[in-house]
C-alpha cells in the first residue's frame, strides 16, 4: 500500500500549496440567449476516423460497422440454429409417421401436429436464414475492408464481386471461403504477397457451407419429382439440410467472432493503476507505526527486554531524590542493580 510522504521532507517545489480562497457566491447556471449548438455526441466514445487516403470512411468507421453488424448477426444466427433444429425434428417425426403408415392407420391429431411443426419450422428457418444471409453479406463486406485498412493494402474485390460470390449458384461454393481466408490473412497482418492459407476454423466452415448449398439445391430439385418414394426421399433430404444448416450457423458464429476479434485494435501504451487517492487515518508510514499500537508489539522480540530495562531505568530518578548535575568529564556511575530484572 503506497502512502504519501511527509510534507516537511519534500522540497519547496513539491510541497502542497495552501488551498485557494473560497469561491464567490453561486449565481446559478449560465444563461444563453438561444439554445447552444455545442455538446457531446450521443453514445459511447469512439476512436476518431483516420484513414490512409483521407477517406472519411476510414478503418475506425469500417471497424465500427463490423462490430455493429457482428452484434446484430450473432443473435440472428442463434435463431437460425434453433429454428433449423426444430425443422429437422419435425422432418424426422414426419418420416417416422411415414414408416408407421405402411402397416397401420395414422392418428389425425398426430398428422395435424406434424404438419404444423413442419410448416412452422420450415418457414421460420427460411426467414431466419434470409435475415442472417443479408447480415452476413454486409458483415463480410465491411470486415474485408477493415482488414485491408488494418494491413495497409487496397482491397481488390469490389462490392458487386463479393455480393455475386455469395449469391451466384456454383460460384458461391468457393467465393465465400476464399473471401474469409483473405480477410483472416489481412487481419493477422501477414505479408500481402503471400498466398492466404485459411485456418482450421475457416476450412471447417467452408466445408459446412458447401454442404448446405448442395443440400439446399438437392432439396429444391427434389420438389419437382413425383411419387410416394420421391416424397419420402424429400423428407430425408430436408431433415439432413436442416441439421447441417444448424451446425453451419453455429460455426458461422465462431467465424464471425474470430475475425471480428482479429480486427480489434491492440491496446496502446501502459495501463495506469490507481493505488490510493489520499491519506488514510491510522495507516502506518515507513518511519512511524500505526497509532494506538503498543510499543512492545512494534519491536523485535530480541530488543523487547532491552527496551523494558531502559524504561525502568529512566523512571527511577523521578521516584527518588534529585540527582546533582555532574561535569561532562566525570564518568557516569553505574546504575544500581534492579531487583526486578532477571538475567538473560
Question: Topology, please?
Answer:
Layout: H1 59-100, H2 108-151, H3 159-167, H4 175-187, H5 200-222, H6 228-263, H7 301-315
Helix pairs in contact: 1-2, 1-6, 2-4, 2-6, 4-5, 5-6
Number of strands: 0
Order of helices and strands: HHHHHHH
Q: State the helical fraction.
A: 40-55%
Q: State the assembly state of the protein chains.
A: single chain
Explained architecture:
The chain is an all-alpha fold and 344 residues long. The protein contains seven helices and no strands. It has helices at 59-100, 108-151, 159-167, 175-187, 200-222, 228-263, 301-315. Helix 1 runs antiparallel to helix 6 (228-263), helix 2 packs parallel to helix 6 (228-263) and helix 4 packs antiparallel against helix 5. The longest helix is centred in the middle third of the chain and has 44 residues, at 108-151. The chain starts with 58 loop residues before the first helix and ends in a 29-residue tail after the last helix. Mean pLDDT is 76; it is low at 49-59, 295-299 and 318-332.
Name the features.
single chain, elongated
Short description:
The longest helix is centred in the middle third of the chain and has 44 residues, at 108-151.
Amino acid at each position: 500500500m503506497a502512502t504519501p510522504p511527509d510534507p516537511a521532507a519534500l522540497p519547496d517545489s513539491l510541497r502542497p500549496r495552501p488551498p485557494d480562497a473560497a469561491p464567490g457566491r453561486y449565481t446559478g447556471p449560465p444563461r444563453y440567449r438561444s439554445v447552444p449548438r455545442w455538446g457531446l455526441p450521443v453514445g459511447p466514445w469512439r476512436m476518431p476516423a483516420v484513414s490512409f487516403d483521407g477517406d472519411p470512411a476510414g478503418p475506425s468507421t469500417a471497424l465500427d460497422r463490423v462490430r455493429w453488424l457482428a452484434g446484430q448477426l450473432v443473435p440472428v444466427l442463434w435463431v437460425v440454429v434453433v429454428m433449423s433444429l426444430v425443422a429437422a425434428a419435425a422432418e424426422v417425426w414426419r418420416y417416422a409417421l411415414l414408416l408407421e403408415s405402411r402397416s397401420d392407420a395414422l392418428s389425425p391429431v398426430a398428422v395435424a401436429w406434424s404438419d404444423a411443426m413442419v410448416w412452422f419450422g420450415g418457414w421460420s428457418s427460411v426467414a431466419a436464414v434470409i435475415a442472417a444471409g443479408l447480415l452476413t453479406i454486409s458483415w463480410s463486406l465491411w470486415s474485408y475492408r477493415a482488414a485491408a485498412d488494418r494491413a495497409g493494402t487496397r482491397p481488390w474485390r469490389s462490392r458487386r464481386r463479393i455480393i455475386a460470390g455469395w449469391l451466384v449458384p456454383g460460384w458461391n461454393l468457393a467465393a465465400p471461403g476464399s473471401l474469409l481466408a483473405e480477410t483472416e490473412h489481412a487481419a493477422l497482418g501477414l505479408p500481402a504477397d503471400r498466398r492466404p492459407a485459411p485456418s482450421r476454423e475457416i476450412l471447417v466452415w467452408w466445408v459446412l457451407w458447401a454442404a448446405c448449398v448442395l443440400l439446399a439445391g438437392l432439396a429444391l430439385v427434389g420438389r419437382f419429382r413425383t411419387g410416394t418414394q420421391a416424397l419420402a426421399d424429400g423428407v430425408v433430404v430436408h431433415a439432413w439440410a436442416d441439421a447441417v444448416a444448424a451446425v453451419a450457423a453455429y460455426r458461422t458464429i465462431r467465424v464471425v467472432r474470430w475475425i471480428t476479434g482479429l480486427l480489434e485494435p491492440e491496446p496502446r501504451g501502459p495501463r495506469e493503476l490507481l493505488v490510493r487517492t489520499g491519506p488514510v487515518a491510522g495507516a502506518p508510514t515507513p518511519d512511524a507505526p500505526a497509532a494506538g499500537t503498543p510499543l512492545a508489539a512494534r519491536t523485535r522480540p530480541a530488543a523487547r527486554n532491552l527496551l523494558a530495562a531502559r524504561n525502568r531505568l529512566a523512571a527511577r530518578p523521578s521516584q527518588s531524590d534529585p540527582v546533582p548535575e555532574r561535569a561532562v568529564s566525570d564518568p557516569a556511575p553505574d546504575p544500581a542493580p534492579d531487583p526486578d530484572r532477571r538475567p538473560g
